[in-house]
Each structure stands twice: as structure tokens, then as C-alpha cells.
Amino acid sequence: MKQKIHQQYLQLVQDKIDVFQDMISALTEDSKNDAKGSAGDKHETALSMMHIEQEKLTHKLKESIDQKSILDKIDTSQIHNKVAIGSLVKTNNLTVYISVALPKITFEAQNIFAISPQSPLGSQLMGKQIDFEFEINGTKYLIQEIS
Known about the structure:
This protein is α+β, with helices and mostly antiparallel strands.
């Protein structure tokens, strides 16, 4: 199960990388085409706006590549008896994948939340074992399984 969840997150990050690369390519192409037929202040403003947008996309692309790099280093065959990077942690009400902060996915009718070990919840869980209790927003959770 952990391997399939990991694959879904890898695919999600790869899809984000592909989208950002396509958007950057389109902006680069647009700026080349715009440069051929425009002049003056409107042209400079348009090019400047495209450049700013390209910088934002490049930053998001770098973040996604960094996320993929972290995911690539996780050995999903490793079984953990304490929460660590790459652990799938099941509680009475919540399932989290300790890796990088990514959107929630649904796997076999179950919501999975990918969190980083540096997040408030991730740092609270790191190194903990089965039967550890914790509380989030007034709700108590109990670690039932770590894989």
C-alpha cells in the first residue's frame, strides 16, 4: 500500500513539474513572438510582466523538483517501527505519509495527507511508536500502525 501511495505522490509531483515546464516554455515563446512585433512602453510592460511570471513559475518548478528529489530518496520497502521519513502512519482518524508537504490524495477510499517532518504535526510524530497519543485542534489521535 505504501508503495502505491508513494507512486501516486511521485506522479502528482511529476505532473506539476511538467505543467510548470510547459508554462515556462509557452511564456518564453510568447515573449519571443511579442518582441518581433512590438515597440514602446506597452511592449516593455508586457515583457516585464512576462518576465515576472516566468520567475514565479521557475521558483515553483524548483520547489517541485526539490520535492521530487526528496521523494526519490525514500525507500518504500523499508518498514519502520518508529515514525521516520517515508513512514505511512495510520491513526484512529488520520493517515499521514511522512515525506514532503503535498495535497491530500484519496487511496482506496481513504484520505492520505503527505506532510513534511518539519511541519508541526510531522515534528510531533517523528520518532514516535505505535500507541503514541497526540491531539490536533481538540481531537485526540492514537497511532495504530506504522509502515
